[in-house]
Amino acid sequence: MLFPFRPTLLAATCAAGLLAAALPAAAAAADNYPSRPIRLIVAYPTGGISDTVARALGERLSAQMGTSVVVENKAGAGGSIGIDAVAKAAPDGYTLGFSSTSPLTLNPHVGHVNYDPQKDVAPVMSVMYSPVLVVATNNFSGKGFADVVSQASAKPGSVRWATSGLGTVGHVVLEQIRQKSKADITLIPYKGAGQQMNDALGGQFEVMSTNASPVLTQHMQAGRLRALAVGAPKRLESLPSVPTLAELGYPKANLTSTFGVFAPGKTPAAIINRLNAELNKALAEPEVHERLLKGGEVPTGGTPAQFAKAIREEYAENARIVKEAGIKAD
Fold first, then answer.
1. Could you report the per-residue pLDDT of 35-71, keeping only the tens digit for each?
2. Per residue in 85-137, pLDDT tens?
3. Domains in the chain and their CATH numbers?
4. Three-class SS of 246-263
5. What is the DSSP string of 18-55?
6. What's the distance, CA 163 to chain centroid?
7. pTM of the entire structure?
């Protein structure tokens, strides 16, 4: 008796065989991991807080895992260039990325990216969140954050608010405030935080939104800049008198920038979990922990699943914000 040819059954049998053969190979690769140097791509320029933290983590991973971790900076496009390099690397655990979540949760909504933020990058661990500070320059005559809104409302265009770029978290913070307050605040977008800081010190605008950093802290301590509000779950220990934007009545503007480590999509779960364990251990080291706190950052940690969930939620929320505010990167 002849049996009819069933291609679906044959295909399923072949696929099962290939999967069975691949599983031992993946397990073996994870067991031998790492057997050569690891490349850690930082999606931002040298000298910033993300670069400093990434290098500190790299040093700890080298010591813990018995292999060198080579840090490489690939800055540009709000972190998208660095994340694109990670997305296109081999999914073997030897190319990792350190970046904020914005290239995955915000940049795709405001411009074009060359990777699928849902599939091409695997979250490994959340490392820290960076509060967004609303800071006044010496050109601002008001005393507190309420004066930003009252002055802009009384005299439209009189308050100029600088961000490090269009479509950045700092820009989203401003749009949320403009939407709720209806104040006519003028947006001044820069192409990076460096020139934004230089012009802030020169009094080229009244207010700016920017991430916490050691440089910012130094200027505030010297009286050259003044914190008016902070985007964070709670007030910062270093700035106990500065209210959060949520306290001031702007809960949707109360945003932070989360930074973490990423791997290429399809990296074996065993390698992701190994890296996560090593990163949590490194983050708990007093030297690394203190370096973050001194820079105004807040250490996080956690599992890959927790980080992935937070990214999905942030992606959905940013889609709503960008649509409502009509934000575009260019």
1. 999 999 999 888 888 898 999 999 999 999 999 999 9
2. 999 999 999 999 999 999 999 999 998 999 999 999 999 999 999 999 999 99
3. 37-129+257-325 (3.40.190.150), 131-253 (3.40.190.10)
4. CCCCCHHHCCEEEEEEEE
5. HHHHHHHHHHHHHHT--SS-EEEEESS-TTSHHHHHHH
6. 16
7. 0.84
